[in-house]
Amino acid sequence: MENITGTELILACSAIGAGLAVIAGIGPGIGQGIAAGHAAAAVGRNPGAKGDIMSTMLLGQAVAETTGLYGLLVALLLLFVKPLVP
Amino acid sequence: MDNAILMSSGSDVDFMIHGLFSYELFGQTFWITNSHVCILIVMLILVGFALAVNIKMKHATEVPGTLQNIAELMVEMLDNMVHGTMGPRGRGFANYIGTIFIFILVSNISGIFGLRPPTADYGTTLPMGIITFFLIHITQFRYQKPKDIWKDMCSPLPPWLPIWFPINVISEIAVPISLSLRLFANVLSGTVIMALVYALLSKIAIAWPAFLHVYFDLFSGAIQTYVFCMLTMTYISNAMGDEA
Question: Which residues of chain B have pLDDT under 50?
Answer without folding.
Answer: 1-10
